[in-house]
Structures are given as structure tokens and as C-alpha cells.
Amino acid sequence: MPEENGSTALLTFAPRTGQEAPEPPAEADADLLRRIAGGSNEALGTFYDRYSGLVWGLLRRMLGEGGDAVRDAFRVATRPAPGTAPDLFSAVCLKGADTLIADATTPAMRGRLPAWYLKALDAPAFLLLPLVVKGAPVGLIYADKAEAGAIALGEKELSLLRTLRNQAVMAFRQASGG
Question: Domain 66-175, what fold?
Fold first, then answer.
């Protein structure tokens, strides 16, 4: 729904029964996203502060008690054992290569997936966006779907995801002093 300034909010704020309506955000979400796309760490912080609690709460309700287990399962080896080839997650992180796996059910692909992933998630389609700072992987944005071929991202959506990743990388760089 467009706001007075013509921008559109990503989320609307509605009071629960018996509660007063919260104050509307000082800056519209669309304006914040434009500033984030322009490299503003301040805007990223405001956006994070505004929605991180909501997102984590929603994820906890969706994943239930298993949410922490999923988070804990992601232990990507950044250095494969001597004499062994890196699994897919390690290779993606080491190369810093954005990767969409449309069908992880093929025998060739399953052979590249680490045991921890097959045990904890085993999604048939997923997207990996590694976070690399000074040539070293520091994190990974992961998204999956329950059906092979079900992830369809247009250039705009992929660009926004990459912008989000790049902002996270900038925050890591700033936090590490460089």
C-alpha cells in the first residue's frame, strides 16, 4: 500500500487486539532499501534493527525447536582435509562463487554434498551466496526449496540478494577494521 510520500512499505504495522498502534517508521522501507543499495551502512543498521526480531521470531515459529539445530548443522569446512576434494559448500565458499543448484537429487550432485547437509536438510534445490572478506569465507547466505527446479529468481531478485550479501560483507569488513 503506497504511503503519503509515494513509497511502498514492505511490512505494515497493525495493533494486536487491545493494544495501541505502534508509531510508523520514521523512514519508509523503500527509502531504506535504496540507501542500502547505495552502500549506506547506517540504513542497513536501521533496517536490521527494525526487522531482525520479527524475522528471527518468524523463523523460530516456522522451524520450531529444530531451528537451532539447522543453524548449528552449517559447519562448512574452509580447508578440505589433505588429499580430499572439497565438498560443494566448501568449494563455493573458497571460490566466493554465487551458486544456484536447481536439482540436487542427481547422483553426481549428491556425491558433492557433505554428509552434514544430507542429514540435516537435504533440500532438492538451493541457493548459496558466500560472504568473503579479504579472500577468506566468513559466512554464507542459504535459501532452499522443497522441489527440484523450484527456485526461480529474476535479475532484480538476484541483484537484491547480492546487495544484501555485499552489505553484510561491508559490515564484516568495517567490524574487522578494514
Answer: Beta-Lactamase (3.30.450)
